[in-house]
Amino acid sequence: MSDQEGPRDSEGVDEPGGPRRMTRLRLLKTGAAGAAGVAAGSAIVAGAEAADSPKDAPPPALKFLTKWELDLITAMADTIWPTDDLGPGARAAGVGYYIDGQLSGAWGQGHRMYLNGPFFTPADTGHGWQIPMNPSQVYRAFLPGFDQYVRTTYGNVYQNLTAAQQTQALTDLQTNRVVILLAGSNQFRAGDFFGMFRQNVLEGMLSDPAYGGNKNMVGWKWIGYPGDPMRRGDNYHKYIFKHGVKYPFEDKPLAMTAAPIGAARPGGVEQQGQGYVPQKKGGK
Fold it and tell me: Which of 40-54, 85-99, 111-125, 172-186 has the highest average model confidence (pLDDT)?
């Protein structure tokens, strides 16, 4: 296994004779829009725009993934959401670090998952997780198998494939062409992993930056999501209910970080919300 990240050809464009590169428009049409609210911010910060996500901040220390695993899933995520003429992609947004944080936390460790069986192969959907492994264990077991499949099928590590080959390799996952046994069974198929991974990528692009992804709020800027305009003291309702009136800070969203409990809202904002303290009127 290699830690090297190879060059990629034809970034963000279709390749002649090859499968069409996944585009963010197609991605959003299949369900990304709702991911912006997957992780509501919970960190407590004072909140100047420049302090939300410093551009020169070093990458965070890994909590669960190895360097090799991070490099692989970052390249895979960048295939799903590439950097192109529309804006930065998954690599720039730090999606790999978001996934790392999730795998080290309650979701990745399966704190609310039933893992004791009995398990069976369902004939239809709706039966839930059918293997005695949590998401972090699935990632750790699945990635080496996918790496081996890519090396055998395409003759190189995923990071060194062309953009068209990378797209085809993920399509192989999505369509269950890849066969990787987990816990000695095929009850969790390659398509299941692709669905979970794709959802994690969308979350990493569109969730609050406090969770490690959406660096510099590049995902929010792309979809025009304002984050928490109340932190700026904006009466956002004055814009969203007026047709043709553009929100003036559309390209400058603010992370949805909570104000300290008991603190007053900035700018004399009247709406109530987390951390808001109503002011008494009439001097009483």
Answer: 85-99
